[in-house]
Write a structure and sequence with these properties.
- The structure is a single chain.
- This protein is mainly beta.
- The protein has a single domain, classed as Porin.
- Helix content is about 5%, strand content about 50%.
- The chain is built from 1 helix and 16 strands.
- It has one helix at about 1-20, and strands at about 70-80, 85-90, 95, 100, 105-115, 120-125, 130-135, 145-150, 155-160, 170-185, 195, 200-215, 215-225, 230-235, 245-250, 250-260.
- An 8-stranded antiparallel barrel has the order 1-5-6-9-10-12-13-16. A 5-stranded antiparallel β-sheet has the order 3-2-15-14-11, with no helix packed on it.
- A hairpin with a 6-residue loop joins strand 9 and strand 10.
- The longest helix is centred in the N-terminal third of the chain and has 17 residues, at about 1-20.
- The protein is elongated and about 75 Å long.
C-alpha cells in the first residue's frame, strides 16, 4: 500500500507540471473597449462679425448716455400753445377794448444738437405751424375772424445736462427765438389786408433724454418762449377801418420725439 502511494503521487505531480497554467489561480483578462464619439447639445457660438454692431443693437462698444463730442438729430411731434397773455387793439388809431386769440397747433419739428462738453450742449430747432387769429370783444362782437398765418420760429438753446453718460439725463436751458410770419391770409369782410411783423424774444426750457437702444434716444422737452406779435390790417385812407394789434403770444412749446446720435 505504501509502495502504491509512493508511485502514484510522483506520477500525478509530473502530469500537473505538464499542463499549462495548472496549479495557478485563473485570473480574468480585462476586455478591450473602444470609446465611441461623444455628441454635445451645446450650440456653437455665432461666427464673428468683425466687431460690427447693428443699427438697433446695444453692444459692448456702445457708449452709454450722452457726452462731449456727441451730435444728434431729433424728429419730434410739437405742440404750439400760444398764451395770448396781453392784447392791445386800435381802430383808426383809437384804442378799443378787446383781445387777440390765436389757435393752438401740432406740427413736426427737426432739431440738431451738439455737445461742447459732457454737460453743455447747444441745439437749433426748425419747425413751422399755421395759426388762426381772431379778435374777441371788439365793438360788441364776441368773435371776429382776422385771418391766418404760418410762423417759422428758429430757436437756439444752450442746455446744461445733469447726468452725462447715464441713460436718463435731465437738463435745463436758456436761449432765444426769432419768428417770421409767412403765408399770411386775411379773413375777408372787415379785414381785406393783413400783415404781421418780425418778432423774437428769450426762451427757457427743461426736459430729458433717455437712451432706448444703441444710439437711439427718446426726448421730452418743454419750452416757454416770450414774444410779442405786431399786426395791422387794411391800409389807412381806405373804406375799410385801419386796425392795429399788439399781442403777447408767449407760446408754450411741448415736444416729444426720437433722436439718433452720430
Amino acid at each position: 500500500m505504501k509502495l502504491t502511494r509512493s508511485l502514484v503521487v510522483p506520477a500525478l505531480a509530473g502530469l500537473l507540471a505538464l499542463v499549462p497554467g495548472a496549479g495557478r489561480a485563473q485570473t480574468a483578462t480585462p476586455s478591450a473597449y473602444v470609446n465611441a464619439p461623444v455628441t454635445s447639445d451645446a450650440v456653437p457660438p455665432p461666427p464673428s462679425r468683425g466687431g460690427h454692431c447693428g443699427l438697433f443693437e446695444t453692444c459692448a462698444s456702445t457708449k452709454i448716455g450722452l457726452g462731449k463730442g456727441d451730435f444728434l438729430i431729433r424728429l419730434s411731434a410739437l405742440g404750439v400753445l400760444p398764451e395770448d397773455r396781453d392784447s392791445k387793439l386800435w381802430i383808426n388809431n383809437a384804442a378799443v377794448p378787446g383781445r387777440i386769440k390765436t389757435t393752438r397747433q401740432v406740427t413736426p419739428e427737426l432739431t440738431f444738437e451738439y455737445f461742447f462738453t459732457d454737460n453743455l450742449s447747444v441745439d437749433l430747432i426748425a419747425a413751422s405751424s399755421r395759426h388762426e387769429v381772431a379778435a374777441e370783444g371788439v365793438g360788441g362782437a364776441a368773435h371776429v375772424d382776422v385771418g391766418s398765418a404760418w410762423v417759422l420760429p428758429p430757436t437756439v438753446t444752450f442746455a446744461w445736462h445733469f447726468r452725462p453718460h447715464k441713460r436718463f439725463n435731465p437738463y435745463v436751458g436758456v436761449g432765444g427765438t426769432m419768428a417770421w410770419f409767412h403765408n399770411v391770409s386775411p379773413a375777408g369782410g372787415l379785414v381785406q389786408k393783413l400783415n404781421v411783423g418780425f418778432t423774437g424774444g428769450p426762451s427757457v426750457n427743461a426736459g430729458f433724454d433717455y437712451q432706448l437702444v444703441g444710439n437711439w434716444f427718446f426726448n421730452f422737452d418743454v419750452k416757454q418762449m416770450f414774444m410779442r406779435m405786431h399786426a395791422w390790417a387794411n391800409d389807412r385812407g381806405t373804406s375799410s377801418p385801419f386796425i392795429k394789434a399788439h399781442d403777447s403770444l408767449d407760446p408754450t412749446v411741448v415736444g416729444a420725439g426720437i433722436e439718433y446720435r452720430f
